[in-house]
Amino acid sequence: MVDVQGACDPRFETVRAAFAKNFAVSGDVGASAAVMIDGELVVDLWGGHADAARTDPWQRDTIVIVFSSTKTMTALCALLLADRGELDLHAPVGRYWPEFAANGKERIAVRSASGCAVVLEEQANGVDLVLGAPLRLGMGYGLNTGPRPMTPNPRSCFWGGAGGSLVVVDMDLHLVVAYAMNQMAGGTLGDARAARILRATYGSLAA
Asked: Buried b vs exposed e over 76-97: b needs ≥16 C-beta within 10 Å?
């Protein structure tokens, strides 16, 4: 049995149980999970090992590749800068990255909107040509779509990385859920381990 490390608010013990279950039944080797509400870190868990031989324990600061989940972090950083007035989303990209303006790209704007809510503005809606699945996309995030939304609240966005990592932001609840691991799962359209963490989080909030 994996020794789960970290802190967990008593309200979210089901998240700790879901995290431990990922090791017991889903083959996790090393992983971490975090839940933040209103800026407070209510779940900060890690466990397992950083290597396949299981000789190097996973630590609170273990670095792991999360693949496309980095898109959410990049978009969030840009949106926070815009909210602070340090990034003009109407300005040409070349103002901040002069080399980008080469080859006729001098008029391309960072984004013709402002504020973090822009992430919820639909940029695309249809079958993704790479993933082969219907997706609604905002700025740097996926948006709830179809009969099986990622969250129960419409003002939510998410994205996952190949192998299983996931970031979900629920603006209505001021909630962020994140999961990262080193045991890759097959496919690119979600993973049972991250879904288990997410369901446990919302279950805890509803209890």
From this structure: bebbeebeeeebebeebbbeee
pLDDT in tens, 176-187: 999 999 998 866
Confidence class for position 113, pLDDT limits 50, 70, 90: very low
Query: Which residue(s) pair with 119 in the sheet?
Result: none
Torsion region of 190: left, alpha or beta (phi above 0 gives left; psi -120 to 50 gives alpha) = left
The reply to whether 204 belongs to the active site is: no
The pLDDT of residue 114 is above 70: no
- Confidence (pTM): 0.82
Q: Answer for the pair 148, 169: CB distance below 8 angstroms, yes or no.
A: no
For residues 71-76, give the mean pLDDT. 76
Q: Which of the residues 26, 32, 68, 165 is marked catalytic?
A: 68
147: Cβ contacts below 8 Å, ≥ 6 apart: none
The pLDDT of residue 116 is: 62
Structure tokens at 69: 């989940």
Homologous superfamily of domain range 5-206: DD-peptidase/beta-lactamase superfamily (3.40.710.10)
pLDDT, mean of residues 33-50: 97
* Domain ranges across the chain: 5-206
